[in-house]
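dumping this here so i dont lose it
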């Protein structure tokens, strides 16, 4: 596997990305609630053309996924499916998933393992940290501080995660042909709250979660 390198302008704004260990892209699409049979290998420009010009039928996300070494990434443009605990619980079932999102003015880092939230926080907002505190807060804060004032968005955090995973997903790599499809937001996974969790925000580690793929 390579190491994280190059520019990550794709991660500055308006995206969710997940990294899941050991799954093939088809399974990742299925866990997002999509039909993997609809995926086609498309470069970034061709994939962007899949998005509808209007949202009369409701919001639609563009998903692009590929496996690099042990990890499968799924980059979501113009959508928030990979932001929610339902999708992350499903993605991480039997494995682990890292998620980074910057959307609608909210930046989030998440780490899930086997359907449970291990670590969640919004960078710069210490009150948002899940309990027990994990190791990623300090790493993320340092990475963002090193690029303060540059308009880098969450790109430094994505680069940090890529370096930890030992893979490369810079602008040049992501621009190439990867499996892509669109998914209506109302087709995404939905989850019922378990008895041990109520309210908004991150699901605490150990919470009872049930899920289904819509």
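and the seq i came up w/
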């Amino acid at each position: 596997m390579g190491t994280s390198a190059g520019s990550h302008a794709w991660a500055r704004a308006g995206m969710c990305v997940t990294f899941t260990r050991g799954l093939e892209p088809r399974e990742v699409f299925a866990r997002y609630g999509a039909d993997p049979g609809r995926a086609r290998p498309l470069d970034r420009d061709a994939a962007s053309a899949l998005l509808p010009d209007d949202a009369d039928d409701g919001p639609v996300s563009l998903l692009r996924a590929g496996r690099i070494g042990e990890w499968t990434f799924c980059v979501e443009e113009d959508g928030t499916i990979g932001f929610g605990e339902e999708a992350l619980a499903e993605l991480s079932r039997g494995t682990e998933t890292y998620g980074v999102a910057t959307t609608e003015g909210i930046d989030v880092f998440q780490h899930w393992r086997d359907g449970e939230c291990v670590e969640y926080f919004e960078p710069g907002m210490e009150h948002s940290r899940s309990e027990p505190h994990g190791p990623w807060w300090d790493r993320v804060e340092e990475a963002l501080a090193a690029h303060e004032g540059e308009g880098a968005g969450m790109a430094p955090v994505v680069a940090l995660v890529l370096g930890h995973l030992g893979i490369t997903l810079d602008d040049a790599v992501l621009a190439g042909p990867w499996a892509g499809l669109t998914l209506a937001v109302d087709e995404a996974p939905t989850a019922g709250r378990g008895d041990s969790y109520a309210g908004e925000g991150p699901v605490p580690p150990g919470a009872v979660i049930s899920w289904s793929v819509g």
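The longest helix spans residues 155-165.
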